[in-house]
């Protein structure tokens, strides 16, 4: 059956009843997982961050990795929602509100991971009382907070417009501002790392556009998975041709992201200097599994996106999930890899948890070590993602996110 025939059939298919017992069970399970995560966070607060795998030389870990990943998911969702409206283009069949809601949920979780990583949330006020506006960390806090507010305003304005209470011109202005902020939020997140020239792996001007391309990959992939699931559950009717357009877009973004990665690796390895250590660590070193999962997974996603015969919904979901997993692996490589190449070569303060050879320099003490999260970190992260699923399901149940006649 051709793609046009599949699209027509999907458009005419009656929507099944959405909600009921299934979504209520999902909400209960997500709530339980969230509570477990909160309990484990309480344990972490009582005993301190020493219970995590983070130490002197690995000051960031799974929490900041998840933060970077979720910022990408959120930015990508808002970008694909706002671009058609901002440029007066045809959209993707009314998925705008669903995409923005997923973006809001991801942003809330990203902010949550920052609070968890602080170790002592009661000192959160100090970020604002003693803020340093010259620090990229402070830029990110400002942009991320603005981004969350704008996402909520954009969703509210979209709902009002589709109910006939707002103007299209005002919504278009908001969509342009939201689009610019979405690009900024990921660029600033990249600059937190890229402006630290002491870390070989992070010090590259390509990091900001690379972050934006990764955001587009995982953002589109997440929205694809969500709308296919919602269509199957009868929450919304969406023509297959719109799904195919998004899959082609995903394939293009994946190719751009892999191109950026290849450029960065070539620039690091070709001169034969210190950058060679970075490439060796990724290709054949301790982070090789994450590297190859990303490269192979994203390549498979591109094949599914560009081969018409493979563009069936099950394979589309597989490709989207592989893209999401690949971008998460990229975040692991970036954060963990940045700490694997020591930037200090003199004796320093070390603990028994961070050294294997205390007789040499700090570099020799750190040789061969790779950060790995502890069970409590995995539990807290699972709880935060449980909160995300809970927010997502509650939104689908109680918010007016279904497409209307005025949906773009």
Output the keywords.
408 residues, mainly alpha, Formate dehydrogenase/DMSO reductase fold, globular, disordered N terminus
Protein model, in words:
With 408 residues, the chain is an all-alpha fold. It has one domain (2-341, 354-398): Formate dehydrogenase/DMSO reductase fold, CATH 1.20.1630.10. It contains 14 helices and no strands. Helix 3 (62-86) crosses helix 8 (207-232). The longest helix has 30 residues, at 240-269. It is globular and about 60 Å long. Residues 3-17 and 346-368 have low confidence and may be disordered.
Outline type: globular
SS class: mainly alpha
Distance between the ends: 28 Å
What string gives the helices and strands in order? HHHHHHHHHHHHHH
Helix residue percentage: 55-70%
Oligomer: single chain
Question: Beta-strand level of the residues, as a percent range?
Answer: under 5%
Give the second-level CATH assignment, the architecture. Up-down Bundle
What's the count of strands?
0
Uncertain regions spanning at least 5 consecutive residues = 3-17, 346-368
Write the layout of secondary structure elements.
Elements: H1 3-12, H2 21-47, H3 62-86, H4 96-118, H5 126-129, H6 136-162, H7 168-194, H8 207-232, H9 240-269, H10 275-283, H11 288-306, H12 313-340, H13 362-366, H14 375-398
Helix pairs in contact: 1-9, 2-14, 3-4, 3-7, 3-8, 3-12, 4-6, 4-8, 4-14, 6-7, 7-8, 8-9, 8-12, 9-10, 9-11, 11-12
Summary?
This protein is mainly alpha-helical and 408 residues long.
């Amino acid at each position: 059956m051709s793609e046009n025939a599949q699209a027509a059939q999907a458009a005419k298919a009656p929507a099944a009843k959405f909600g009921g017992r299934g979504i209520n069970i999902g909400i209960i399970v997500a709530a339980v997982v969230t509570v477990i995560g909160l309990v484990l966070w309480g344990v972490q607060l009582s005993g301190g961050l020493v219970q995590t795998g983070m130490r002197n030389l690995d000051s960031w870990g799974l929490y900041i990795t998840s933060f970077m990943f979720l910022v990408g998911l959120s930015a990508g969702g808002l970008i694909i929602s706002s671009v058609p409206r901002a440029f007066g283009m045809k959209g993707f069949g009314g998925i705008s509100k669903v995409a923005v809601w997923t973006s809001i949920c991801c942003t809330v979780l990203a902010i949550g991971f920052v609070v968890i990583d602080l170790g002592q949330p009661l000192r959160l006020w100090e970020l604002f009382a003693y803020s340093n506006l010259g620090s990229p960390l402070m830029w990110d806090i400002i942009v991320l907070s603005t981004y969350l507010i704008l996402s909520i305003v954009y969703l509210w304005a979209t709902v009002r417009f589709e109910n006939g209470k707002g103007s299209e011109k005002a919504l278009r202005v908001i969509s342009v501002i939201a689009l610019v902020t979405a690009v900024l939020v990921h660029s600033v997140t990249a600059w937190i790392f890229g402006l630290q020239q002491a870390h070989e792996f992070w010090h590259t001007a390509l990091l900001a556009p690379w972050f934006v391309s990764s955001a587009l990959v995982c953002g589109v992939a997440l929205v694809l998975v969500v709308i296919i699931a919602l269509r199957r559950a009868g929450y919304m009717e969406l023509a297959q041709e719109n799904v195919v357009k998004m899959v082609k877009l995903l394939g293009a973004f994946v190719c751009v992201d892999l191109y950026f990665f290849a450029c960065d690796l070539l620039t690091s390895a070709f001169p034969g200097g210190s950058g060679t250590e970075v490439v060796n660590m990724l290709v054949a070193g301790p982070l090789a599994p994450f590297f190859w999962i990303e490269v192979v997974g994203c390549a498979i996603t591109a094949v599914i996106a560009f081969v018409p015969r493979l563009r069936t919904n099950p394979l589309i979901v597989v490709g989207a999930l592989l893209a999401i997993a690949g971008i998460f692996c990229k975040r692991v490589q970036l954060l963990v890899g940045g700490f694997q190449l020591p930037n200090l070569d003199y004796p320093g303060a070390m603990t028994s948890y961070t050294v294997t050879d205390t007789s040499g320099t700090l570099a020799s003490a750190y040789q061969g070590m790779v950060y790995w999260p502890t069970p409590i970190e995995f539990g807290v992260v699972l709880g935060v993602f449980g909160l995300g699923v809970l927010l997502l399901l509650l939104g689908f149940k109680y918010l007016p996110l279904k497409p209307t006649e005025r949906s773009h």
